[in-house]
Write a sequence for this structure.
């Protein structure tokens, strides 16, 4: 049971960690000063959430485990984030599309997780959902701006949407740990979020004058630890310091 | 395109906005700086991210900078200097009750 719960927590927290790391890459590289600060703000929100989850997981695991060992010293297969969040920052359209597709799911998830029988998770979800409501506002605004903007911005955001949509179905997949934790009224049954997610996404796409992509076969695997080729590079960047100088801090 | 060039291009296309923040209820909005944004909605969001990250405010106003009419620094002498030697215009002779703050 405890293993299932830790696995379940990783399934939620790793999404925030990896997306936060991707957003952190933009620090000093945003398309404008204001957007740069906005995106790194979101990154810091996500890291804050990640810390709360990992502190709780470390408490459950006991021993030498800390939030830092969970974040920095796991191997690739031990990260349970969805494939969507590890996708590279190809250009601003991809950054915003990835953010939007995740934010929408993230908010729906947290709103349900607030009712969890596990008080710690319910409290983290309650606090985080305020932040995520702003993230979604930010990313969906940009989807509409770019979609309903110039021909160039429209084409770019449509291309990004076509490429990243393939990772959306995985958001609603359940692992064995998910199922066990849902049984105990601790976890959220993500399969029940699917219909409302696609409905809300379609509404925003329509407002943004974008076409909803049609995908036959969706990509999945991250939740079970099977990641895309981008994940190794991301982890190498993120873990370098702790691997090269074990136990360092500042 | 480098970050610098891209930023410069955006700054040229996006108008400037003045940002006013109310630090807590009961106080007035105060000018705290400016930023670039393509429209009012974006200006509000940018202001939230740039100027209220450290809990500086509970309310934001944004105004297009072009709508601000400013006094001319060259006119300072005639506009402001005459007030310098008129201390009697300060209401310093009243006793204020302790409950009155921010006067």
């Amino acid at each position: 049971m405890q293993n299932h719960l830790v696995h379940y927590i990783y399934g939620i927290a790793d999404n925030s960690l990896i997306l936060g790391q991707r957003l952190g890459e933009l620090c000093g590289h945003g398309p404008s000063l204001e957007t740069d600060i906005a995106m790194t703000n979101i990154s810091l929100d996500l890291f804050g959430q990640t810390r709360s989850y990992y502190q709780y997981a470390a408490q459950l695991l006991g021993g030498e485990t800390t939030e830092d060992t969970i974040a920095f010293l796991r191997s690739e297969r031990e990260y349970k984030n969805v494939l969507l969040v590890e996708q590279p920052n190809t250009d601003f359209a991809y950054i915003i599309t990835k953010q939007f597709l995740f934010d929408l799911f993230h908010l729906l998830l947290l709103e349900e997780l607030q009712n969890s029988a596990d008080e710690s998770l319910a409290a983290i979800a309650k606090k985080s959902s305020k932040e995520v409501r702003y993230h979604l506002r930010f990313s969906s605004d940009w989807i509409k701006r770019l979609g309903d903007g110039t021909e160039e911005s429209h084409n770019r955001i449509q291309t990004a949407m076509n490429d990243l949509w393939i990772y959306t179905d995985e958001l609603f997949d359940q692992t064995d740990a998910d199922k066990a934790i849902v049984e105990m009224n601790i976890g959220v049954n993500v399969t029940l979020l699917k219909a409302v997610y696609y409905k809300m996404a379609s509404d925003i796409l329509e407002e943004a004058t974008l076409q909803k992509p049609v995908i036959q076969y969706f990509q999945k695997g991250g939740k079970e630890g099977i990641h895309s080729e981008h994940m190794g590079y991301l982890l190498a960047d993120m873990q370098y310091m702790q691997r090269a100088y074990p136990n360092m801090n500042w | 395109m480098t970050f610098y060039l891209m930023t410069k291009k955006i700054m040229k296309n996006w108008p400037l906005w003045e940002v006013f923040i109310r630090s807590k209820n009961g106080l007035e909005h105060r000018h705290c700086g400016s930023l670039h944004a393509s429209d009012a909605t974006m200006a509000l969001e940018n202001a939230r991210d740039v100027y209220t990250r450290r809990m500086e405010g509970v309310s934001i106003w944004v105004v297009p900078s072009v709508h601000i009419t400013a006094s001319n620094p060259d006119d300072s002498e005639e506009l402001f200097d005459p007030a310098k030697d008129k201390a009697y215009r300060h209401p310093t002779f009243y006793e204020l009750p302790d409950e009155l703050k921010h006067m």
